[in-house]
Amino acid sequence: MRPPGYAAPALFLALTVCAPPAWAQTDITPILDFLETSTGGAGYWEAVARLESLGREALPSVSEGLRRANPWIRIGCAKVLFAHGRKSEAVSALLRIAEGNDPSAAVAAANLVANLTNKESGFGDPEALAHHVKQRLSETQDPTLRIALARALHSLTAGSDITPLRTLREILKSEDPDAKVLSALALAEMEEFNRDVEIALEKLAREPGDRGRLAAAYLAVKRYSDAVNREAGRRANARATNDGKYALLDEILDLLKRQYVDLDLIKERDLIENAAKGMASSLDPYTAFLDEKEYKSLMTGIEGVYGGIGARVSMRKDKAGNAWLTIERPIYSGPAYRAGLRSMDRIVEIGGEAAVNRDLTDLVNRLKGEPGTPVTFRVYRRGWKESQEKTLIRERIALETVIAEMLPGGVGYVHLTTFGPQSAPQTAAALKSLSDQGMKALILDLRANTGGLLKSAVDVAGLFLPQNSLVVTVRSRESGESHHTRTPPVYQAPLVVLIDGASASASEILAGVLQHYKRASCVGERTFGKGSVQQIPDIQATPERDALRLTIAKYYLPNGKSPQKEKDAKTWGIEPDVKADPPEKDYWLDEAFEKIRQSGKIDDYIKEKMPQHKELFRALAVDDSGDASRYPGLDALRASLDPPLNQRLELDDLRALVRDGLRRWLADERGKDFNTDYEEDVVLQRGIMEALKRAGIDAKTIPSYAFFVKRLEAADAAAPIAGKDATLPQLK
Fold first, then answer.
1. How far apart are CA 189 and CA 191, in angstroms?
2. Measured in Å, how far apart are the chain's first and last C-alpha atoms?
3. For residue 384, how many other CB atoms are within 10 A of its CB?
4. CB of 578 within 8 A of CB of 523?
């Protein structure tokens, strides 16, 4: 609801700092010449206004201006023609400029179309004009031009097309700060205020200048509009209640207030909120009522500008059973690693408070903060006499989202951890690099990838599928929209996709569409089963900042099926073509490993042997073929363990534990993670076998793979004993 007297502030208009030259009363030619040379700079719009003021007598010369080559004179002339009623001619001319090769002129022309056609009519066929704008929007990747075209499309269609909103929301999540600002202002102009927009506007409003004042104005209008809507919502609720629609809830609330045994527990607002939570959660796992605290918690981090020390941490117990905040691995580009922190270091205090037997999330939040701010903590490392104090300046931590590596036998490996704005171009770059190295088959790892941007998933699919292939259809209650690949594929060789129970949403779209077109076989476990889209509108009926996480649409693959796990459904998600389950957890072995780590014997072994066997250890960290005999002194290490571990622990298990320690030590030394471990990762092993099979290569002929291929084939041969299929599953 717009408040009374509301008028959207003018947006994206050129600012001028000085006046144009003085012209004679009816001298048109110098004005046109000035427009041609000013390129939209100082005095440009004053010159356009001067030309406009000359009246209809000047229109023949203005029309001639549209035929000049320079786009800036054509923009000015189009503005004049529109003002004098020749709207269709003006808009057509501006859209031709928006399709041209001058980026700044194209942006100015598209923005002018948006400004001129907003709430106007008589400028031509809106549907035909909108088609041209959408075509140009699909062709350009320039974020500033995309924003201008989105504004133009929104005005031409009077807001009936959802493409502008989707485009602007996508740009708002990008890493380009100027594009984020412009997209937030454009969305505010369209009265599309979600939390992303508000965060961007609140940040911008603190800046001096016209854009800061404009952002502050939009926020003020939004606050007033929210107040009006909340009051309207409360009145509507009161009317509905008086009509008896919610008599059941009213009666239950009344009985509770009058008869419940513990009156202190009867808090009307809490009861109503819990009723709202139950109402929302009864529909699906993702729709939920959020009170103000939950809403703020959910929105924490949406802006994406958070600082930290750059470390992956967990709680690990010592011999006494106390759980300490422990660095599992530093992020090697972050401040923690540069300050000397290494894997398995313990953070024992943060800001003077102990970091033992505490909630992990609470401790992590204490380490996080705004980039550029300091955090002080104490670190202890085995072998130190006492802990050391560290003060680090938090930085913005950027985790890799596309990780690529060439495995033995020409098997390329790409791990996509999320679907962000840069996922498709980064994946394309990784594919080119791997292809240049002689890649024969590719494994795309989507395990634990919980999703991200829909457009990103579509664009990544376009790297593997023919142009204009249908990828996914998004259907809301009112409409549906299909998404197709937009470019020719860049990789057409054999492909395998790894999936598991944490692969969700955009991951399921990508895996499902590649499987549907038989472009890839999926290896692993059935995926999570999330095929829905959520929005988070504010609740207007309460004085607090409550919200509703609301499912508004579902994804459908080209076969017409959604991966969404519905209530009582027997099938959901994406079923793998080749089923590969990770080994069942051995709790005794995990406990034994932790005791050995706590004893320090693994660290002592590595420190003792490393100087003499460094090159051997580097090789074993990558590929030891499961051969425990290659580790010097491993029998002696097992004999040194406390009973009963020195008798019960298999030498191969100790090999795996030592190798894990070696990989941590060497990763810290070189400042780079080991991205894969085909020695221990059973699902990856199955993926390698399937990828090579699709490439017509016997995996046993690759020396690095021979040991696990033999083991897996033996397991498959023995499978009928347990009532399983003895053969490797075939590609469907």
1. 5
2. 53
3. 11
4. yes
- Residue 302 belongs to some domain of the structure: no
Do 506 and 623 lie in a common domain?
A: no
Alpha carbon distance 168, 146 (integer Å): 8
In whole angstroms, what is the distance from residue 576 CA to residue 634 CA? 39
Considering just the CA atoms, what is the radius of gyration of the chain in Å? 32
> Can you give the residue range of the structural domain that contains 465?
402-579
Determine, yes or no, domain membership for 417.
yes
Query: Any alpha helices (H) in 528-632, and if so which ranges?
Result: 587-599, 601-622
Burial code (b: 16+ CB inside 10 Å, e: under 16) for 34-63 equals bbbebebeebbbebbebbbebeeebbebbe
608 and 602 Cβ atoms separated by less than 8 Å:
no
Residue 547 tokens read as 């919200």
CATH number for position 100: 1.25.10.10
DSSP output for 401-447: SEEEEEEGGGEEEEEE--B-TTHHHHHHHHHHHHHHTT--EEEEE-T
- Six token digits for residue 397: 């931590």
Q: Which of 124, 126, 118, 74 is nearest to 96 (CA)?
A: 74
C-beta contacts of 283-286 below 8 A and 24+ residues apart: 283/551, 284/532, 284/551, 284/567, 286/530, 286/532, 286/534, 286/549, 286/551
Please report how the helices 87-98 and 143-156 are oriented relative to each other, as an axis angle in degrees rounded to 10: 160
CA distances from 447 to 365, 414, 700 (A): 26, 11, 25
Query: Is residue 462 domain-shared with residue 571, that is, in the same domain?
Result: yes
At 21-45, the pLDDT tens digits run 555 445 788 888 888 777 777 788 8
Integer Cα distance of 102 and 244 in angstroms = 63
Residues 595 and 466 in one domain: no
What's the CA angle centered on 672, arms 670 and 675, to 5 degrees? 135
- How far is Cα 578 from Cα 525, in angstroms, rounded to an integer? 8
Q: List the chain residues with pLDDT less than 50.
A: 1-11, 13-20, 24-25, 300-305, 721-732
Number of domains in the chain: 4
Tell me, what's the pLDDT at 728?
37
For residue 3 the two structure tokens come to 């408040």
The pLDDT value recorded for residue 452 is 81
What is the pLDDT at residue 429? 96
Instruction: Quote the pTM value.
Output: 0.65
Residue 375 is predicted with a pLDDT of 96
pLDDT at 240: 54
Final residue of a structural domain among 159, 192, 225:
192
* Of 555, 579, 603, the domain-final residue: 579
* CATH label of the domain that carries residue 358: 2.30.42.10
Residues 708 and 619 in one domain: yes
Q: Which of 192, 252, 28 is nearest to 538 (CA)?
A: 192
Tokens of 648: 């019960």
Distance CA(578)–CA(720), nearest Å, equals: 17
* Among 360, 302, 362, 367, residue whose Cα is nearest residue 330: 367
Residue 164 in contact with residue 148, Cβ under 8 Å? no
- Which amino acid, 279? M
Overall size of the chain counted in residues: 732
Cis ω on the peptide bond leading into residue 558 (within 30° of 0)?
no
What pLDDT score does 536 carry? 82
Looking at the fold, whether 672 and 623 belong to one and the same domain comes out as yes
- Give the amino acid at 44: Y
Buried b (16+ CB within 10 A) or exposed e, 616-655: ebeebbbbbeeebeebeebeebbeebeeebeeebeeebbb
φ/ψ of residue 407, rounded to 5? -95, 165
Same domain? 38 vs 181: yes
